[in-house]
């Protein structure tokens, strides 16, 4: 398998007047988990569809395992596993029939019984896909994506709708795939999922990559003080007093960010005292991936 499993350069894709992907560069390496983060409508799903040949790029180049996913689709499909948001599963078929049929298309599939056990599918194998819960359908879609022993797995929000137990099983499977040398490219809205799984993170907004790196690289540049002031305070005044950004994370909860300032805690306490603001809790740490994501993509609803 090529060292670079996914190689996207200057990808553009539009639907009429709406540009979904606008000059995106993205690479994912074999034996690594690459997480793609972005708000709704950022172009993540369209990018995955281009990678598997469901959409053809308007401009730029897309190479999946070194192949053109549109013109060399027949050679590519046996080597990849795909789990898209809508699942692509036949709604009228029984879950077990779907999985066994997909397995029969591969020369050396994973044993269906192994996937049934790992993903706890046994209780609904005879249930039609349309009657599965959201989490059950996600688990079936994941089994379908993995049954062919793919070299590259593309997962679009793989744990959406899953309970915590199912999500942990998914995380374990993704970790095992990486250990086997499989390239995994996943999109997610769950920052803890990206932090737990990703070797590299790419943040996408408005169809472009706005940041990339390891979780540590993306979160290590700024120190953070999180404080709780039940009576509230004037965040704008506090920001002007400290000369650093201050934002409200929830009612009565504030986040102060500043590059490596050893006197930050003292300065925050003094500035709050000047407002007669009573601090009931204060925590010092690094920025989270969610902090970085919100700074890059904004806090307004899409």
Which key terms come to mind for this protein?
302 residues, alpha/beta, Rossmann fold, six-stranded mixed sheet, 32% helix, 28% strand
Short description:
The protein is of the alpha/beta class and 302 residues long.
Question: How would you explain this protein's 3D organization?
Answer:
- The chain has 302 residues and is an alpha/beta fold.
- It folds into two domains: 4-218, P-loop containing nucleotide triphosphate hydrolases (Rossmann fold, 3-Layer(aba) Sandwich); 222-286, 2-Layer Sandwich (Alpha-Beta Plaits).
- Helix content is 32%, strand content 28%.
- The protein has eleven helices and 13 strands.
- The strands form three sheets. It has a six-stranded mixed β-sheet, with helices on both faces.
- β8 (200-205) and β9 form a beta hairpin.
- It is elongated, with a radius of gyration of 22 Å.
- The model has no long low-confidence stretch (mean pLDDT 92).
Terminal CA distance: 38 Å
Uncertain residue segments: none
CATH class placement of the largest domain: Alpha Beta
Any idea of the CATH topology of the largest domain? Rossmann fold
Gross CATH architecture of the largest domain: 3-Layer(aba) Sandwich
Tell me the β content: 25-35%
Structural class: alpha/beta
């Amino acid at each position: 398998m090529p060292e670079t499993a996914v190689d996207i350069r200057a990808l553009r894709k539009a639907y009429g007047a709406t540009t979904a992907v606008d000059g995106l560069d993205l690479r994912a390496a074999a034996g690594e988990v690459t997480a793609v983060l972005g708000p709704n409508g950022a172009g993540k799903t369209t990018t995955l569809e281009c990678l598997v040949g469901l959409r053809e790029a308007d401009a730029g180049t897309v190479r999946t395992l070194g192949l053109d996913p549109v013109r060399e689709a027949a050679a590519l499909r046996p080597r990849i596993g795909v789990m898209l948001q809508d699942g692509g599963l036949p709604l009228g078929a029984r879950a077990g029939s779907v999985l066994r049929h997909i397995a029969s298309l591969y020369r050396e599939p994973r044993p269906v019984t192994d996937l049934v056990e790992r993903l706890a599918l046994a209780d609904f194998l005879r249930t039609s896909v349309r009657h599965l819960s959201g989490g059950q359908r996600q688990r079936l879609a994941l089994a379908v994506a993995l049954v062919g022993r793919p070299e590259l797995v593309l997962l679009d929000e793989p744990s959406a709708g899953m309970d915590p137990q199912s999500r942990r099983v998914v995380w374990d499977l993704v970790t095992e795939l990486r250990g086997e040398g499989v390239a995994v490219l996943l999109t997610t809205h769950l920052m803890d999922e990206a932090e737990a799984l990703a070797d590299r993170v790419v943040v996408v907004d408005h169809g472009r990559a706005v940041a990339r790196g390891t979780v540590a690289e993306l979160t290590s540049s700024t120190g953070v003080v999180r404080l709780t002031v039940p009576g509230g305070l004037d965040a704008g005044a506090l920001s002007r007093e400290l000369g650093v950004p201050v934002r409200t994370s929830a009612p009565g909860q504030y986040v102060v960010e500043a590059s490596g300032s050893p006197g930050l805690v003292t300065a925050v306490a003094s500035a709050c005292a000047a407002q007669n603001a009573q601090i009931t809790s204060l925590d010092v740490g690094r920025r989270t991936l969610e902090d970085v994501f919100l700074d890059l993509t904004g806090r307004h609803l899409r």
